[in-house]
């Protein structure tokens, strides 16, 4: 027994795959895809393009056809290199022959990002063949020498990598300082995620796979049922949680084979087995998820969002999913088709933001962040956020929620996921029965927050189509039950008291035009983006401004001045242009001083002084009406401006022009005075006429300019005398 124990110790002091085997026989990526384990990736439009993955391992054979720049050029690692955007060669610079675990790093890198320039039918491209790599060579002639983990993770972030692949660790099942350092970085930098091989000893998983925020990956066999490999290390972890997050192909995986010669331009392949192969396989799959999120949303997903999507994608291997052996099961890309996502950490420029905060755990902790610049919300204890969604009739509904946890010795904060139905029932997270679905409870009988919490930081609710029969809507709620109070209240990190989260949902009725109304209820299925819609999903059309008289001239007899007061409002709050006219059967007078541009619901008053404003017209009539036109400025792709008209009843304007008295009118002037005074009055009148006419003509031009701009082809409601 001592000999066996010593042998295990030697193997596990190296990366876990020291116990993995090589074989002449193996299965390529194409074989695995054909089996449906990662169904949909090969035929998908996504291949990890523009995604950068960091890999810390024994190095990479750069002249291999998977990685070199062309058939005859290796190229220099850097931003312009086809595959290697950054090389950390401070410990070593190649997958060097004779070093411990020689060929291990090249094989892992091939799983992550192989896109070969020479034809080798025995070795297919990676799932994420469009991805590029940050290569961190941590093996030299004396063995494995990983630096402080925040050095590796900071280097990855500086070069744009969210995903990190580590197929190594020590033989300790304890929560070590390295586990603590990993969790510290991932808590302070939400845009970082580490995939770790848990070991190949068939017993409890080892560090740093037991860190709280990493993805520990079990290996599956290549067989009809993709069963679990018997030598997997498994959970529970040091916190008595499941530990294993996902299971991915790890048996006889064919990938790039290193030859240790820097200029051979080789194209070798080899087969290896172990969790060292499963971890990069899951990381490769997740790189495709990352590309999908970036293309569909424009944001780089946080580590929590990627974990949420990864859990959602999984096909259970046994009926007990999730558990400490398979985690959520094996990834299947088709399960994230038509997925709805929400990420509190959605932010532009995340890499620059993290670089500004610091390059080490100590620097990040010294520069706490309050969540500004990200989508939010960030929940304090007792707070919650609710999202109402519409289930797809006849489909199962699945929801996953993920968040980051503070390292030991902190207790794990408790965010709960609750789904409430329109018929008064609810389901709680991680209470999945042997049938594979979550139990539903009546709200009138018990409370969801009174039910046990699983202490997991990625949780799931599954509801079958039968359970959702007759359910019109679902409220998906994230509740902060317990959040520790750190020394920096109002911040999001380890010393904060607020938590962000990520959600992923499937089984929802689609919303093809993104108007917030599910397809089955949408009567207008092609609404223009950004158009406000009604409950039927149809663009809300503009309504015309409303005009009403506050002081109405109807029925009056005006001899000196005409006072007009109106109220104008617009339901959409648009600016409104208002003009007025005096109208009789054969004369129209534009009131240039009674025109406004109104931006608020308000009242306006206009006074027309007869002897000043109307002096040049034949105004003495009993059949005047006041016409008001109002047009709003609502113009968009889905609606247009509208006009309102308001007309008064008839009224009288009658003014005895003193300048004309005695000239054919009733006058008390004597014959001796008549000629000279009337002539003087006429001269005065024509002087006034000259002054006023210019103002009236100008008003007419203003009105007609308004008419041309806003009224267009609309027929005028009255005749204008030219």
Bin the strand percentage.
15-25%
Task: Profile the largest sheet.
Answer: 7 strands, parallel
Low-confidence stretches: 1-25, 27-43, 662-703, 710-722
- CATH class division of the largest domain: Alpha Beta
The CATH level-2 architecture of the largest domain is identified as 3-Layer(aba) Sandwich
Strand order of the largest sheet: 3-4-2-7-8-9-10
Radius of gyration: 38 Å
Structural class: alpha+beta
Helical element count? 11
Work out the count of structural domains.
Answer: 3
- The termini sit apart by 115 Å
User: Which geometry do the CA atoms define?
Assistant: elongated
Annotated CATH homologous superfamily of the largest domain? Peptidase S8/S53 domain
Write down the CATH topology of the largest domain: Rossmann fold
Architecture overview:
Strand 18 (414-421) and strand 19 form a beta hairpin. The N and C termini lie far apart (115 Å). The strands form eight sheets. This protein has a seven-stranded parallel beta sheet, with helices on both faces. It has 722 residues and is an alpha+beta fold. It has eleven helices and 33 strands. The model is unreliable at 1-25, 27-43, 662-703 and 710-722 (pLDDT under 50).
What's the short version?
By secondary structure, the protein is α+β, with helices and mostly antiparallel strands. The protein is built from eleven helices and 33 strands.
């Amino acid at each position: 027994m001592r000999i066996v124990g010593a042998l295990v110790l030697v193997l596990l002091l190296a990366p876990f795959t020291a116990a993995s085997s090589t074989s002449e026989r193996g299965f390529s990526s194409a074989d695995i895809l054909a089996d449906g384990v990662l169904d949909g990736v090969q035929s998908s439009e996504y291949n990890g393009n523009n995604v950068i993955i960091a890999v810390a391992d024994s190095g990479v054979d750069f002249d291999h056809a998977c990685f070199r720049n062309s058939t005859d050029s290796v190229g220099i690692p850097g931003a312009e290199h086809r595959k290697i955007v950054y090389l950390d060669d401070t410990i070593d610079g190649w997958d060097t022959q004779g070093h411990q675990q020689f060929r291990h790093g090249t094989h892992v890198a091939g799983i992550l990002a192989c896109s070969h320039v020479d034809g080798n039918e025995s070795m297919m491209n990676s799932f994420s063949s469009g991805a590029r790599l940050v290569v961190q060579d941590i093996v030299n002639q004396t063995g494995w020498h990983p630096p402080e983990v925040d050095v590796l993770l900071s280097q990855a972030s500086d070069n744009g990598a969210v995903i990190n692949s580590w197929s190594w660790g020590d033989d300790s099942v304890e929560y070590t300082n390295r586990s603590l350092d990993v969790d510290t970085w991932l808590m302070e930098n939400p845009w970082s995620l580490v995939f770790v091989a848990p070991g190949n000893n068939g017993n409890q998983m080892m560090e740093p796979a037991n860190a709280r925020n990493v993805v520990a990956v079990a290996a599956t066999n290549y067989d009809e049922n993709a069963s679990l490999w018997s030598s997997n290390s498994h959970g529970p972890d040091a916190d008595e949680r499941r530990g294993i997050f996902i299971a991915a192909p790890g048996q006889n995986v064919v990938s790039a084979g290193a030859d240790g010669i820097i200029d051979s331009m080789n194209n070798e392949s080899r087969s290896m087995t172990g969790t060292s192969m499963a971890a990069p396989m899951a990381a490769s799959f997740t790189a495709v998820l990352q590309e999908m999120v970036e293309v569909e949303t424009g944001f780089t997903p946080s580590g929590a969002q990627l974990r949420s999507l990864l859990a959602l994608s999984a096909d259970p291997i046994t009926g007990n999913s999730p558990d400490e052996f398979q985690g959520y099961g094996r990834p299947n890309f088709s399960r994230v088709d038509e997925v709805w996502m929400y990420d509190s950490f959605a932010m532009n420029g995340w890499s620059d933001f993290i670089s500004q905060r610091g390059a080490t755990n100590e620097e990040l902790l010294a520069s706490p962040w309050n969540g500004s610049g990200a989508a939010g919300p960030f929940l304090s204890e007792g707070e919650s956020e609710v999202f109402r969604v519409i289930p797809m009739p006849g489909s199962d509904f699945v929801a996953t929620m993920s968040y980051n946890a503070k390292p030991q010795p902190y207790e794990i904060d408790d965010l709960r996921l609750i789904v409430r139905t329109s018929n008064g029932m609810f389901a709680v997270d991680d209470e999945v029965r042997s049938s594979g679905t979550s139990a539903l409870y009546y709200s009138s009988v018990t409370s969801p927050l009174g039910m046990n919490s699983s202490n997991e930081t990625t949780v799931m609710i599954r509801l079958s189509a039968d359970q959702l029969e007759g359910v019109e809507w679902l409220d998906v709620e994230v509740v902060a039950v317990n959040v520790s109070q750190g020394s920096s209240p109002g911040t999001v990190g380890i010393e904060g008291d607020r938590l962000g989260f990520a959600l992923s949902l499937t089984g929802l009725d689609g919303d093809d035009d993104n108007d917030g109304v599910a397809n089955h209820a949408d009567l207008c299925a092609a609404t223009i983006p950004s158009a406000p819609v009604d409950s039927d999903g149809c663009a809300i059309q503009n309504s015309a401004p409303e005009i009403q008289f506050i002081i109405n001239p109807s029925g009056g007899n005006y001899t000196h001045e005409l006072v007009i007061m109106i109220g104008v409002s617009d339901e959409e709050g648009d600016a409104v242009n208002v003009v007025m006219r005096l109208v009789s059967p054969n004369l129209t007078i534009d009131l240039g001083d009674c025109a406004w541009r109104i931006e608020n619901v308000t009242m306006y008053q206009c006074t027309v002084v007869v002897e000043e404003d109307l002096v040049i017209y034949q105004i003495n009539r009993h059949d005047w009406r006041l016409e008001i036109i109002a047009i709003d400025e609502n113009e968009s792709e889905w609606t247009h401006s509208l006009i309102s008209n308001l007309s008064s009843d008839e009224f009288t304007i009658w003014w005895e022009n003193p300048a004309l008295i005695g000239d054919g009118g009733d006058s008390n002037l004597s014959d001796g005075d008549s000629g000279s005074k009337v002539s003087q009055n006429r001269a005065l009148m024509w002087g006034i006429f000259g002054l006023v006419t210019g103002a009236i003509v100008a008003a007419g031009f203003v009105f007609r300019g308004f008419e041309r701009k806003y009224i267009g082809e609309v027929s005028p409601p009255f005749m204008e005398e030219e």
